[in-house]
Each structure stands twice: as structure tokens, then as C-alpha cells.
Structure prediction request, 244 residues.
Amino acid sequence: MSGRQLPAARDRVRDGSRRAALQPVLRQDGRRGHRSRHTVTRPPHVRLLDHEIELALVLRKQVTQPETVTAENLHEYVFGITIANDLSARDVQLPQGQYLKGKSYRGFCPVGPYLAVPEPGEFPLLNDLELRLEVNGELRQHDSTRNLLYRPAETLTELTTFCDLSPGDLLLTGTPHGCTATTPPALVRRLATALLPEDRLWRMFIRSNLRKPYLQPGDLVTASIRSPDGSINLGRQHTTITTS
Prediction:
């Protein structure tokens, strides 16, 4: 099973560049099996381990050419939905520009516990699902798929213009605000970039972020996704962070 990541929710763009809203950000990596309880080992050199709850789509059909996916035919492309926590080593992902490496250490991106298979008439519910993520019982992320920057049909259409899709592929639809990592305002970033060498900027970024509540060994991350009326309930995913 391979995976691809879609863009963030609307509120999260306010934490970063406005340019993030112009085009979906896509990447590909391996994904994990479904279960309710996971243990993820934080790599020894990683200090800024962050969480990202996302609705994940499991694809239904083979696509080898550009196609137009709409809200009306989305059910022909998507088989099921589940929970994903796109764990991210920010001190690898951001300074090194290594999105694949920073998000793909062994055990990263736990999915599950349940795979829901909506009927064609239930697919509009995907636009009104509540996402919640807690760390040790403290609410960190809470939002709705109503606020996604790009609907699944829109991003699937974009993907088909350059990428083959296969049954079982996993697409992540974006994370809401509440991640630990944030970036300075655009004006501050431009000034800092003009005045300081890039390596010094990232050292400062890491040093300032060490004071924030990134995931630590012993933390328990709980993620859930459901519709307001409970007709779709993807269960609760529990992930314990450990150290080697």
C-alpha cells in the first residue's frame, strides 16, 4: 500500500505561507496496517516529533490517465476511509527539506483502527467529519473536514494529471491547526532570510521550538474521527511514543 498526502485545512494556512493555498502539496511514501493501538519509537536524533491527524482515503480503482473526479462520482474512486496520524520529525522535514524522510521513519503514520466503507449516498458526509487529537488527554487538534483547503475530488483530479493510482493506495486529506510546529509571519521570514545564512536560521528555529510541547517518550496520542450524528465513527486510535 502506498500513500500520498493532501494539503492542510484552511486555518492551518494562517500559520504558514499564503502560497500554500494555491496548489495541493503532494508526496508519496509507504503506509502501515490497521490496528487500534500502536507503539512508535522516536528516532534518537529526532527532538521535534509532531502529530497530524488526517482523514485517509483508501482508493478503489486503477487510474492511468487524467480523469475528472467530482462529488457525484467520488464513490467510484474511493473505497473506504480511516484515521491517519502523519507523525512528522520537524527537525528533519523542515531544515533538510526532507518531507519523505521526515515523515517516513519506521512506525510513522499509524492508521486505523477501522476502515469504513461508505455507500454512494453517504459520501457527502465526508465533508462534515469531526477530527480530534489529544496528547495525554489534552486536546491538541479539533476541526472539521468542512475546512479542508481542497476537497478529495479536486485533489484526486489533480493527481490523475501526472500520477497513476492503484486500488489500496492511501490518500491523506490534510491536517487542521493545532500542530506543535509553527512558522513566523511571512514578513519576519523574508527579513530573516535576507539577513542571516540559512543554516543559522534553521538552528535558531530548532532552538526556539525545543521549548514547545513536541511528542516525548511516554506520551499517549489519541485520535478520532466521526460525523456529528455518529453515523460514521472511525473509532479511537491510540499511539504510545517510545524511545530506543
Notes: DSSP finds six helices and twelve strands in the chain. Confidence is low (pLDDT under 50) at residues 12-25. The two ends are 26 Å apart (CA to CA). The helical segments are 10-13, 90-93, 99-102, 152-160, 186-195, 198-209.
